């Protein structure tokens, strides 16, 4: 009997996500990891940092490293616009900002509409892609923020 209950609970699990765009692709991250979403601010460049690290910002007295998610995903950098945002997240106890092209919405989707990405479609380093959500008219790539940076990268930007 308990096995049936577990399956029902899994089928009813709701994922709460913040969705954002990078280029034409839509991504989602667990809302519980997101601390805040900010407009672009001036970023102080840091010498000898990885190419995808834009620099640091002062967020209410704390110095926060900022990663350009476009560059991290191997995409070309683009000019920042009025829609560009910095998503402030907590990753394994560290606060990091991620630059995205725009933030779309907060979504609540059933976990059972997601599936693992097809192996052939994972050209970019896909260790951090958890799953793909199949929404009515679009696909949403779910990112595992704990895996978006390698251990060495986390250490080098903290």
Q: Can you lay out the helices and strands and say which pair or pack?
A:
Elements: H1 2-12, E1 14-22, E2 25-30, E3 34-39, E4 53-59, E5 62-68, H2 69-72, E6 85-91, E7 94-100, E8 102-110, E9 114-115, E10 129-134, E11 139-143, H3 151-157
Parallel strand pairs: 2-11, 5-7
Antiparallel strand pairs: 1-2, 1-8, 3-6, 4-5, 6-7, 9-10, 10-11
What would your notes on this structure say?
The chain is 14% helix and 45% strand. Residues 1-8 have low confidence and may be disordered. The protein has a single domain, classed as CheA-289, Domain 4 (OB fold (Dihydrolipoamide Acetyltransferase, E2P)). Strands 8-1-2-11-10-9 form a 6-stranded mixed beta sheet, with no helix packed on it. It contains 3 helices and 11 strands, in the order αβββββαββββββα. With 158 residues, it is mainly β. The radius of gyration is 17 Å and the shape is globular.
Question: Can you give keywords for this protein?
Answer:
single chain; 158 residues; mainly beta; OB fold (Dihydrolipoamide Acetyltransferase, E2P); five-stranded mixed β-sheet; 3 helices; 11 strands; 45% strand; globular; disordered N terminus
Short précis:
The protein has 158 residues and is mainly beta. The chain is 14% helix and 45% strand.
């Amino acid at each position: 009997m308990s096995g049936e209950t577990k399956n029902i609970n899994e089928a009813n699990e709701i994922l709460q996500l913040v969705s954002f765009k990078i280029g034409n692709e839509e991504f989602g991250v667990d809302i519980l990891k997101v601390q805040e979403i900010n407009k672009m601010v001036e970023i102080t460049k840091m010498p000898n940092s990885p190419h995808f690290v834009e620099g640091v910002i002062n967020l209410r007295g704390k110095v926060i490293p900022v990663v350009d998610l476009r560059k991290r995903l191997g995409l070309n950098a683009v000019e920042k616009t009025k829609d560009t945002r910095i998503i402030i997240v907590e990753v394994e106890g560290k606060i990091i900002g991620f630059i995205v092209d725009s933030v779309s919405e907060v979504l609540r989707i059933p976990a059972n509409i997601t599936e693992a990405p097809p192996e052939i479609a994972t050209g970019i380093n896909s260790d951090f892609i958890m799953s793909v959500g199949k929404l009515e008219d679009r696909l949403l790539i779910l990112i595992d923020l704990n895996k978006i940076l390698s251990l060495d990268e986390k250490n080098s930007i903290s």
